[in-house]
Amino acid sequence: MGKAVVYTASRNLYPHMVYSLRSLLENGNVDKIYFIIEDDHLPFDVPNSEIINVGDSYRNIFPDGSPNGNFMFHRMCLMRVLTARLLPKDLEKVLQLDADTIICDDLSPLWDIDLTGKYFSATQEFKGCHRPYGEKYYNVGVCMYNLKYIRETSFDYKVLNALNTEKFLYGEQCAYNKYALPNNKIADMPVRFNETQFTGFTDHPAIVHFAGTKNWYESPSFMIRREYLEMYKNEGDVL
What we know:
By secondary structure, the chain is α/β, with parallel strands linked by helices. The chain has a single domain (4-230), classed as Alpha-Beta Complex (Spore Coat Polysaccharide Biosynthesis Protein SpsA, Chain A), CATH 3.90.550. 26% of the residues lie in helices and 18% in strands. The strands form 2 sheets. Strands 3-2-1-4-7-6-8 form a 7-stranded mixed sheet. It has a two-stranded antiparallel ribbon with strand order 5-9. Strand 1 (4-8), helix 1 (14-27) and strand 2 (32-37) form a beta-alpha-beta unit. The chain is globular and about 45 Å long. The two termini are 24 Å apart.
């Protein structure tokens, strides 16, 4: 099915996801874009795209009483965890992108990463001290899922159960790390495909990710790599 990308977003993120989409359409060289969201439509049209509406179904699977129910992105956590079940069954890989990413280059090399026996590929965080599960910790804001392997092993259901029984500081990201790291089930993604203040920076970024920044789309205090965002903000909220 070619090179597919998926965004998961709750309604408050729709207006600002347009910056990432504009950059993806210009630079990413992908074939299909999926949206796992709460509605039947977005406030803008996206070519070669498909919407999967989860509505309020998350309430039955990820109840407010769960340990992570007060996590600010708890609805988005659910959507991501169930990506392998929500997307077409013949799709074996998909690139997940956070809404606060700007795509600067062709993403095709990501589909060449060997995911044999791995749940996903992601970039390690080297900065900061949040490494609760050993020497490694991965940022999953940009993540290439091995959907086929996740379905075969029910890794997604294991993570979902963990989110409903354990408290995690960073939602599904921590759960992914906790249950994938011990068995070496994560493939390394080059830093240039997820450049953040936590993973580091290169001279030629393919994806700039404004991770850990509140109001990333307007904060004047966060100037690192902001020039990439500004390139895609000058046309208003239209593609």
